[in-house]
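Budget justification, computational time. The allocation requested in the original proposal was used primarily to generate structure tokens for proteins on the priority list. As evidence of use, we reproduce two of the resulting records. The first is shown immediately below.
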Amino acid sequence: MGTPRGPSPPLEGHLDGLQRAAPEEREASGRRLREQAAQQLSREKEAWGQTERNRLLRVRRSTHLQKEHGLRHLKLVEDARRNHRVAVKFLKASLGRVQEQEQQREQEAREHVQRRMDAVLALKDSITANRETLRKFQAWGKARAELAAQKAQAEKQAILAQGGNAFKLLFHQHRRQELEAQKRSFEEEQTLRKHEIVGRLLKEEAEESRRRRPPSPPATATTMATATATARPSLRSKTWDYLADVSEGRTPGAPGPVESDSLPLPGRSGLMSAISSESIQGASGSLSWEDQTLVEPEISGLWNKGYKAHEVPKEEVDRRPVGGTKMEKDILARTVEQLRGRVVHKQVASGREFKGCPFNSKPKLIHFKDFDIGKVYKKRMTLINATYTINYCKLEGVDEHLRDFIHIAFDPPGPMSAGMSCEVLVTFKPMVEKDLEGRIWFLAQTGRFSVPLKCSIKHCSLSLDKELINFGSYVVGETASRVITLSNIGALGTGFRVQLESEPCELEPAQSAVRVNSLYTYDDRGLYEKVLPIVTEQRPEGKEPSLMEQDTMRSPESEDVSTDLHVFSEEQMEITLGEITEGYVGPFSSIKVPIIFSPVTPGTVQSRFQFTFKNQQCPTLRFRAIGVAVDVPVWVPKSIVDLKICMFDRLYQDTIQVHTRSKAALRLKFEVCKELKGHMELLPETGYIQALSTYSVQLKFLPQHTLPEDAGKYFDRESRILEAPLTIRVADQVKPIEFTVHATVTTSDLELSPLEVDFGYCTIYEAVRTPVSVCNLSLLPQEFGFVRVPKFVDIQPNDGFGTILPLETVELDLIFQPTKAKEYNFELVCKSEINRCFKMTCRAVGVHPPLQLSHCQVKFAATALYDMSVAALYVINAHVSMNSLTHSVPRIGSEDTCPVGPTSFQFLPPPDSPITISPSVGTVLPGKKCLVQVTFRPVLSNELIRQQAIRAQAKDGEVKSHKEPVTPRRDRRRVSMSLLRMHSRERPSRASRTAPPPPQKQEIKISSEEYQVARATLARTFRGRFDKIVVPCVVASGDIQDRKGTEPLSFSPHNTLFLELWCPAVAPSIIVTSDKGYTISNFGDVAVGHRSIKKVTIQNISSEDLSVDFSVLNPNGPFHLLNPISKLPAGDTQDLVLSFSPHESSLAQETLDIITKRGTLSLTLLGTGVASMITCSIAGDVLNMGYVIARESVSSTFKLQNNSSLPIKFSVRLASLSRSRHEELQQLPRFLTARAKRTEVVGTQNHSGQSVFSVVPVSGVMEPGAAQDFTVTFSPDHESLYFSDRLQVLLFDKKVSHDFLLRGAAREHMMFVEGGDPLDVPVESLTTIPAASPERREEPEELRPILVTLDYVQLDTDAPTPPATRELQVGCIRTTQLSAKKTVEFSLDSLASLQHKGFTIEPSKGSVDRGQTRTLSISWVPPPDFHPDHPLMASALLQLRGDVKETYKVFFVAQVRAGP
């Protein structure tokens, strides 16, 4: 075996390499793992970050969605509220309109009834007046008849006295009166017929004068009288003379004055009544009612004395009509035709017949132009023979209407050869100013021919030289003038007036309504003016006045007013008239009128003018004027720069553009009036505007507060409008460029009212609201807001921000809610949008009251009338510590802290409010709270119900007063007349009887039927109401029970809490219709054990069916609902049957709630049980008869009072006489049973078998309010201390009203001792003890024991302990037996021993009179050697000396007990 070799060198190197590479690989793998872990961690972090971002995004999205949903919800709620308010507003408006319509209909009905009543009264008054008038006329007629009869009788007596024939004389007198009456009637009829004839004559004459030329004026009456006395009067003169004679009462032939002025008015008015307006207006020449009276003839020499008028016999004039008869006229015409036919021949020459005018006139027309009256005009005319051969010419004359004015001078020349001529002289003598036309007739051999003739008065012939005036083009500001010529080529001048065509023409007022001819004299016109009103008065009613009358009645003042309505302002016209606007143009002359053109605005200007003339025959001449206004080379497009509304101390700027149409550069200078230089400026002040370009000027306006004083007339203080004139002066231009800057300057002030606000005292649990107003004195709307508002102040609405309109006042509410008790002084700053600040000073005192309410606001649910809603809250006393460092303590402002302790409160609801708070007064201990219930029960106020009742009574009274009884048709007229007659007699009291006075408010009582009907009516028509009631709760420190008597606690007004109650009341869905709407069902007094039934009717007044539930009545109570219902249809009624069965004598009351989904109706059930309404004179339940000598008796009396309203049957029962007494005696005696189980009350009885106690009376009936006396007699037959019995008073033999325990004791002797601890049983032995003999009575009695136990209570305190005390009663019985001693003497021995042991007895001896008792007071105090564990015992003898001697051994047992 060889030696082992080591590893080879290559293998070792490889192992070394592996060993070196292993750590590197481990490090590399570790690095990879760490990198992977880092990458994984980064990925996880990135994923977590992405997840977190997604979560935040989802949260943000959900939050945004929730906000949007909330905003949408708030918007919907706000829209719903707004729509609700709008609906409520329109509903109120609609209801108001409906009520107004109803009131209007009622008012119309009342007015209709009143009108009918007034008509009836008016008819009655008219009938009464007619009857009175008829009675007056009848009385007057009767009086006249009686007077005539008396007169006739007197005349008859007088005639008879004279001896004449009275009958004959009276008959002749009567006939004479009849004839005179017939004559007067005939004359009146004749006068009327004459007036009609004269009217027809005048009308025919007027019509004839219109058809032909008016005749020449005749001579006046005066001239005719001087010329000849036989002159023929005209027909009109005869007519006027006749009328004058008739009117003056003369005969027609009698002489009288003929002047027109002396004619009386009645005759002329009768004549004018027949004259129509047409005849007056149409024929001016025929309107003179007498011959024209001229002072001198119009043509000289016409009426001279040498003229001899042709006289016609009067008979011929009266026999032949004017112009001859018709037959004569026909004969004359035929004769003239025959003569002409004989003269005229046909002319034939050379075989040709001449046709045409035989003579030619030169001139062809004879024209007299522009003639004047009173002058003579002559013209020659040449007639040339135009026929073929010799001809002749003869003058026939002129037309008939020219014969008075034209005279022809023509000498017939004889035969005239062809071409020969002759002359004719025509003379014209004008007498009237009128155009005349006619012909001059000649007769030739070949026939008639004529030469036309024309006479023309003076006329105005006016004309203008042009109808259009063209000014051409002129620059604005220049002035041009043109002339227009008015020419008159006529011989008559006239006044003229030139004016714009749009202006009305001014005419001179006429002298009279009728155009009277110039021939009228002044007297004639005055007469016509006198007659015209009479014609107007005689116009029938209902006929409109004619045009003539309307013109007559129109006054000159009315014409002036109508003319002044059309005043045209010439200042606004650019083409105007010059200085000559009116004047006079003479005959054959002309006048020049200037027209001025002053252009103001560029453009074409046109105006129309007219010439109007005073002579109405001249037509109006019109012409036009045209001009073109060319603007200046420099102008401003806006002549008015309106800066709108500007505020003081604010800078306003505007740019003004200046334009030029000039082709050269111009220099401009801008000027501001000196009054406004401190407030307004134009920049730059000087500049050059280039050709055909624009130039901009900057206007700066900075109004100061002194602007109203500086601006002067340019500023209106009332409207605050500034009109500033600015001027641009252009070089080489005459007219400057003016423009105006308009601005309404206003202030930027906001007025806060009031400037100082005192919130007063406010608790930290409430907020105080104070209204303030912000008034915008500016004419611009301004945004405002209250900034830096403290946290304890809130401003609403919109948190004190908003926009206020010009001159508007905004009401804001400052709400102050302190956070702690201290004094607050702060300022509220209101800032406007222009950064102006307005401050308001505020102060308040914060109060932290010692009590607080759990709820300061209670919102009741909608509660129906007479229903009830209850809310609960707590009054909390959280003040338990005075440490103000750990918490806020109660105090008023900076005053001292309220003490810790009981704190009292009291709610003070407003009077007559539907709110009840229970308890309203109380005390809350520190750290405790008190429950308070607030009840809301809406009711109708008594005043409102009384007013409704009064209105109903007034309406019923009105209906009754207007109600008429029904009567048969045939008697209705008679009844109405009788009523009218009675009504007229009772007219002074008509108003008081037709409208009875309304009842006074005191007449309406709550228990009256009217009150209940009004209440039910209002409940049916109730529409609901909402009341917000604030109830203060005052707070005071201390317990309300600690106050002394009626002394109130010191309540601080600053610590007052306030409870706000929202009380909506709605109409009830169910009402009570029975018992006048009472919701209280009172069964009255019902005897115990009896039952009373009552029905209550309810009605569903809502519009839907209701499910009905009832509250549970007390099962053991006296009230029961016998027929509950489950459903009540809409408008249906249902009877509820209720019963009352009292079990005891007491007032019973329960509430039956009728519950529906729309409310609860509460019925109050009341009833009284009368069985227990008895009172007893015995105080307590024990009647102690005291001590009695055996075999004697004593009586006691007590009284029972019946306080009910019903008679009560009573009975008295004793327990010893009851039927169960035998069963009770079979049980074990009471002394054999435990004291706790002893229930018997019947004690020792008499041995004779008679009752120890007796009562009188045993039974009976007590009337209401009556009293009954009872006598109880105690008659023991042996000695015993345990006589007892039970006395019971039963009502109606069912109910025990009173239970008394009767007690008594009997002794053989007159003395007794009472007191001490019982040592025997209260039941006697069954054996009978014989009565003692008198001899035995004198022997000494045995000792009778009396045990007196005293317990001394040892107290733990240092205060002295009172002694233990007991009492013994020593008495003497009053008796009827004869006895030697009248008193009882007593004495106690061994007093020294007792005193040594600590006992004290007072008195130790004495005497007692009959019927009296004496008290022995025993007290014990432990002696010093007393051992507490061993009771102290002592005894003493008590001796009584009366009729006999009795000795009692009194055992005293004393012990000490530890105190509590």
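The second record produced under the same allocation is shown here.
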Amino acid sequence: MTPKQTRVMVLNDMEKLDRTLFRLDQGFELQFHLGPTLQGKHVHVYTNYPAEGERFERHKFHALDWINPTGRQDDSDKFCNLDLKISGSYQYYFGHGDKERSGGGYIVVDPVLRVGVDNHILPLDCISIQTYLSKCLGPLDEWPDRLRVAKEAGYNMIHFTPLQTLGKSRSCYSLADQLELNPDFSTPGQAYTWTDVGNLLEKMKNEWNMLCITDVVYNHTAANSKWIEKHPECGYNLVNSPHLKPAWVLDRALWHVTCAIADGKYEDRGLPALIQDHPHLHAIRGVLWQDVFPKIKLWEFFQVKVEPAVEQFRALLQSGAKPDRIKTDGKHQLKIIQDPQYRRFGNTVDMNSALETFVPHGSSPGAIEDCCNWLRRRLEEINDEQFHEIKHHQEQATNCIDGTVSYERLADHGPKLGPVTRKHPLVTRYFTFPFEEATLEEDLELMNQPEKSCHFLAHNGWVMGDDPLRNFAEPGSNVYIRRELICWGDSVKLRYGNGPEDCPYLWARMQKYTEITAKHFVGVRLDNCHSTPLHVAEAMLAAARAVRPNLYVIAELFTGSELIDNVFVNRLGITSLIREAMSAGDSHEEGRLVYRYGGEPVGAFLQPSLRPLVPSIAHAMFLDVTHDNECPIQVRSVYDSLPSSAVVSIACCATGSTRGYDELVPHQISVVTEERFYSKWNPQAKPSSPDEVNLQSGIIAGKLALNRLHQELAAKGFNQVFVDQVDEDIVAVTRHCPSTHQSVVAVCRTAFKNPKHHRYADEVPPMCIPGKIEEVVLEARTVERQAGSYKKDERSINGMPGYTVEIKEHIQLKDSKVVRQAGVTSRGSSEYVQEIVFEQLTPGSVIAFRVSLDPKSQELVGVLRNHLIQFNPLYKAGSLSDPNTPDILKSTLKQIMSKMTLADMNILLFRCDAEEKEDGGGCYNIPGWTPLKYGGLQGLLSVMADIRPKNDLGHPFCDNLRQGDWMIDYVSNRLMSRGGTLAEVGQWFQAMFAYLKHIPRYLIPCYFDAILVGAYTTALDATFKQMSSFVQNGSSFVKLLALGSVQMAGVGQYPALPPLSPALSDVPYRVNEITEKKEQCCVSLAAGLPHFSAGIFRCWGRDTFIALRGLMLVTGRHLEARNIILAFAGTLRHGLIPNLLGEGVGARFNCRDAVWWWLQCIQDYCNMVPNGNDILQSPVSRMFPTDDSKPLTPGTVDQLLYEVIHEAMARHMQGIEFRERNAGPQIDRNMRDEGFNIVAKVNPDTGFVYGGNRFNCGTWMDKMGESERAHNKGIPATPRDGSAVEIVGLCKSTLRWLVELHKQGLFPYNTMTIHKDGKQLSVSYEEWDRKIQENFEKMFYVSRDPNDPNEKHPELVHKQGIYKDSYGASSPWCDYQLRPNFTIAMVVAPELFTVERAWEALNVTEEKLLGPLGMKTLDPDDMVYCGVYDNSLDNDNHNLARGFNYHQGPEWLWPIGYFLRAKIYFAKKLGKDTYDKTVYLVKNVLSRHYIHMERSSWKGLPELTNENGQYCPFSCETQAWSLAAVLEILHDL
């Protein structure tokens, strides 16, 4: 069962993709997902793809329903979808809020073509089409004999030019009656109908396996069409298009010039009827400028009659008229109104604008007269401007007439029409004139007689370099008056208007024409597509698809721009665009076209079945020559017909030709003048017979072989292409099948110049073909034969009899005449190459080899594919079972990985360079490029995720894989050295790679990718199985963040955590490789990668416990969370938890906040883990039972956790005061002496914990100055001494919890005993809790009331309505700085805040501190704010040097978690409306984190960014607390 193909389109606000092509197949699912700019918004997606059971209507859109797979508030994965079952072009658009459309585009669904009695599918890339001019087929009963030539030459589709009645010119595309079958196809005894044609086509489909398409011509009808005489409104005439009158007048004048020249009236002026040289052209110019233009006065159609206008204006002034300001929109500009009827001097003056522009100085007659004179002068100026504009038009018209006459009568490459006559006029007429000849003056009279002027219809044609999206016959275009139209005098341009209501008869007629066509033909070619009004073609094709849903639509566009091509392809649902090999000037360009129009590169990666929808180029129908272009034999040489055809046939797209090419007809078969019939098929035909052909005629035998090959390659999935330009004339094209790894290599030696007259090199460079050549599929060349020379036959379209193809098919290499020898060379263990030396690859010859891998490689690839089926059923094709499967591969990888712990996963997937080096290894380094980010699979997958979608096989990563086995061995050896299940996974990789190493190197990247993608996805599945249901059922974003837990939590060579109590159960152990003793191996959390990942700098108390809730509890890693909590509990000393852990023994107790984060985590553990309160009874091995004890071994002194908690609280209440051990530069080279003095106490009045001094920094904002030059060394940037707001909040949270635990009988203490002034005192937990509650807002809230009695320093207030960052700092102004820390207190102790005040403070914070990914650490209005962190900069700036501003502006990520969680909490209290707006904000902010993580090769979130989210090179690339904080927001949602 092949997996369902799903494509994902990400919608971005204001993204309009009308000119981007998205092609999809029937059976695909299309999903619309929201991009970051739309996350959280209420977006509606609309489409005109019909709902189930409804008919398609182009203008009928319906909204799609959103599907939210997780069913949660975090709907970042939500999507709406379409199951694509019907071919055609469909539009989608989306909007949000009050914007109905804020983006949109088109999708094109390809049709499915079926052929044969069994209705089997004909893939688009299998198509081989041949064009027939229908009028050259003769009577319908003779068609089978003539069409049989296409069948016998291997084509499977025929393109007929229109089968309708032709117009007077006999051009195939000038149709007199769109509804009637051409009577030429009937015989005297038998009148044929459309039904007879339909029966023949059906018979061809069933018996010959051939499909048929035909042209539709919407743009014009034959000038002699009877129906347009009755319905002249269907064309552009002088009644419905009066803007064409001036052009018509010029056209009549030119006709009369033709008559005068033909009658010899200009001979005395040097202008005879036979125009032969440039003086004659000059004479034409003279006639135009001296006789024609002055006589017809075209400018008068655009001018104003001055005097009547002035008189009208005078009358208005005299009556005191005033301008209507509303109509003039305040612009003082005279407006001229163009006469809609285009009469001479018909233009009028907008009197309102005249009154606004020309204002008299008074009401006296003199003032009015002055004013009228101003107007008169201005009108004369305007008339003059119009005169000059028409003069420019006349100059262009003269140039165009000159160019036309020059081409038609003088140019060597032109038709050389001979003398000017009424049949061959000087220039083609632009309008029909169905009346008797008269004088010009009499002709011009007719212009004003509507019943006659409605029959002057504009001809169609084309305009060089015109905008294809503009209709050149509509008002605003000057093409007709400037004579820029290259005119088809046999056809009238049709005028559809904006819709059926504008010309009902024409729309109805053309719809019927379309329906007849769609009934009988599987597809249509849109003739003159780029000039057909888009809305007309859209409507007609919709009518055709209503008759035949799987309509195949092709067109040739001449827009010169792929973007404009896409407009046509999108709006019309064009399936294939016609491309032509004849457009290539040399073989190199011809090869490039093959590469451009189809296929993936050889060795391309297997793409996942669910993947982003990427823009494509239109499917190509690549023809060697189209039916309306010049003959290749004339342009190139007869010898090039075969090799250029071969280059085309080997292309991975639809291909084809035109009838006559294969028979070597040495001239263009004209769509206008050709009246002879095609020759018939007769296997016994003689070479000299002009009206019959067989396999020996021309290159038909070669074409048959090439068409068969083309169809086989497409049908069997040879969809990979490589084009090699061997030398200037030789193109080698490889088609490769990615499942069987068979290739066909076609080597074509083109002959753009005739070998008889051009010297080609005798030596042909040898070629190396990787693999084993199974056979020569075909070798062929064009040769001369004795059959007489070419003579153009009177009755039949005949080719050159003197040439045929010498061809051999399916022969062994030794029997080849083209190849002299083929040596086998082996490059390394897995490269099997055959070197081909050519004997007779003469110009005009072709050879194609079928190549397999050598037998050993073929077998190994098959076995490898067999083992890959466990990951993707697509590998079944081409797979082989292995009788000698190694034992390790007898289990699936899923079974092996199910035994792995998450600590094992940390090694398998992640570990940065520092972590790897600790074990004596390192991350893999690609020479000349860059080392990978991780030693584990993620390091490789991050790079491959960029390479795979683009098939970037030239990337250094792929080069490294092709050049040697180093990377392959690195992956397996790294794991095998580990022991345990990891070693088993390593053995699995080693066994898989054993196959990989012995297949051709060009295939290694794609199979290496397949193995790694399979292993990686299996590892992720196994990882999430061990996590909480929140993760397992969560969005992709949740899972990505949860992987951060695996990324950060690991066990190094040396355990980072101090040992736990031996009395504790469920502790992981391992045997130390060096001491061979059992040791504990609990995971520890790295603070961030790569800077805080290994050695003593890996583990920090504060970082660990800020990250623990998100990374360990939310993800369900409860046991590991317990072990981390208890390990740190064992290091308690002085009532504090260490900041830098240093394995406990080297711990530094220099932070005031870590203990409170630790206590918060214990509370979270108890609340979130089933039976979580049991942890309070867990044994803790005290390393330092007293402040001064030496580190004790585990188990010497054990206490229960609740006793350790009580001790930490009591020590604070008693007051902590000590000097750090080993104080001095040996533990901190920057700290000043006073900074080593640690204080943490409780204010007896407020209950606030306070401490620190101005020379140390005991909270998370812990930057110590390092620059002697800037004099900030030893000075903390942010001491935050006094009572830091988050510590007060964490303390309050802990007290609330302990009081509650005591009530439940789970915590035995309700008081602390302290000693003050020699007395023993008892302080209750409840009283401490109450004091903080009573004093918090009094002391921390910065009121908007200037007379607030609690405000001790009103002069320091900078922002009102916020909460202070600290209380009682040694520098009082620091208390008042706006920072994001109070939001932490809001989350852990929301009871301290009144809702309205909290909300106001959060809004100020949002406005001032919220960045794209993080929170500014300081108010940008603060004078020391600086948002760019540069730790290497050392200068004289005290506030910046050596990164002194680490926490003075840069945007840290983890506080955003607390800010958004606080917003969510308080928004809920303020009602639904506020809550909904907040959820939108949250989703919008988080979408940026999601995008960052998806794009990050570290798959993480950084520690911080510079201002406004800019990248900071000094930040950790992925930080534990950043990941945790974002995961906690999603958990809260």
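A brief technical remark on that second record: The radius of gyration is 43 Å.
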